């Protein structure tokens, strides 16, 4: 249901759509949906995190360095470092924090 909800919200969304999938203690799993050319603006995480692309293609940008991520590829995100994510295609990602 969560993925369908994200897809429905993306039809009219101007920004990426994120939904909490699972939380246990300090660990959270979040799905993030993007339409092509959407940007998850610069932000920091306060916990270690891993971003994995389920479908589509995104670019992870940190300190001016860009890492392309295709389907099933992932990037570990360091704590307290500014970063952003750009969608090169319609994409669905999963973010694990904690």
Report on this structure:
The chain is mainly beta and 98 residues long. It has a single domain, classed as Sandwich (Jelly Rolls). The protein is built from one helix and nine strands; from the N terminus they run H-E-E-E-E-E-E-E-E-E. It has one helix at residues 2-10; strands spanning 17-24, 27-34, 39-43, 49-55, 58-62, 65-69, 74-77, 83-87, 91-97. Strands 1-2-9-4-7 form a five-stranded antiparallel beta sheet. Strand 5 and strand 6 (65-69) form a beta hairpin. It is globular, with a radius of gyration of 13 Å.
Highlighted features:
Jelly Rolls, mainly beta, 1 helix, globular
CATH class type? Mainly Beta
How many helices?
1
Under CATH, the topology can be stated as: Jelly Rolls
DSSP strand content: over 45%
The CATH architecture category equals Sandwich
Category by helix and strand content: mainly beta
Can you summarize the main beta sheet?
Answer: 5 strands, antiparallel
Q: What spatial form do the alpha-carbon principal axes imply?
A: globular
**Total strands:** 9
Number of domains: 1
Task: Return residue spans where pLDDT drops below 50 for at least 5 consecutive residues.
Answer: none
Cα-atom radius of gyration: 13 Å
Mean pLDDT: 97
């Amino acid at each position: 249901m969560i993925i369908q909800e994200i897809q429905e919200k993306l039809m009219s969304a101007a920004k990426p759509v994120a939904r909490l999938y699972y939380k246990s203690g300090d660990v959270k799993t979040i799905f993030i949906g993007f339409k092509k050319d959407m940007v998850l603006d610069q932000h920091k995480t306060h916990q270690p995190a891993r971003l994995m692309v389920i479908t589509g293609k995104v670019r992870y940008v940190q300190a001016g360095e860009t890492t392309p991520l295709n389907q099933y590829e992932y990037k570990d995100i360091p704590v307290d470092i500014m970063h952003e994510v750009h969608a090169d295609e319609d994409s669905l990602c999963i973010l694990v924090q904690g």
